[in-house]
Amino acid sequence: MKTISVHELKKRKEAGDTFFLLDVREYHEYLVSNIDGHHIPYNDLESRLGEIDEYKDKDVVVMCRSGNTSKDAAKILINSGFETVFSLEGGMKKWVKEIDPSLPVI
């Protein structure tokens, strides 16, 4: 499985690169702070894969709170035919710590 650092993700966002950001945190976590990813909670991912089928041939970056659940979610995507899937190292906690400390994290 591939991973991406928060710094590399920031560069890709700033450059306007084409990728799909999937946030698999719980709904209440997403409401507190997010970085504009498409939100599907991890527990709903398998039943909602149809919502994101159009991104199977795009780079997909999966993020969670600390980087563990996103790895499991990435495996689900890969097993469902998504071609290029990255897990965000350290998740939202690392994003806040190293990129944007103005965002709250729960």
Q: What this model shows, in words?
A:
This protein has helices at residues 6-15, 27-32, 69-79, 91-98; strands at 2-4, 20-23, 38-39, 59-63, 84-88. The mean pLDDT is 96. The N and C termini lie far apart (26 Å). The protein is globular and about 35 Å long. It is α/β, with parallel strands linked by helices and 106 residues long. The protein has a 5-stranded parallel sheet. It contains 4 helices and 5 strands.
Strand sequence of the main sheet, in spatial order?
Answer: 1-5-4-2-3
The N- and C-terminal alpha carbons lie at a distance of: 26 Å
From the spread of the alpha carbons, the general shape counts as globular
User: Residue-averaged pLDDT, rounded?
Assistant: 96
Number of H- or I-type helical stretches:
4
Features:
alpha/beta; 4 helices; five-stranded parallel β-sheet; globular; 33% helix
In brief:
Strands 1-5-4-2-3 form a 5-stranded parallel β-sheet.
What order do the helices and strands come in, and which of them pair?
Layout: E1 2-4, H1 6-15, E2 20-23, H2 27-32, E3 38-39, E4 59-63, H3 69-79, E5 84-88, H4 91-98
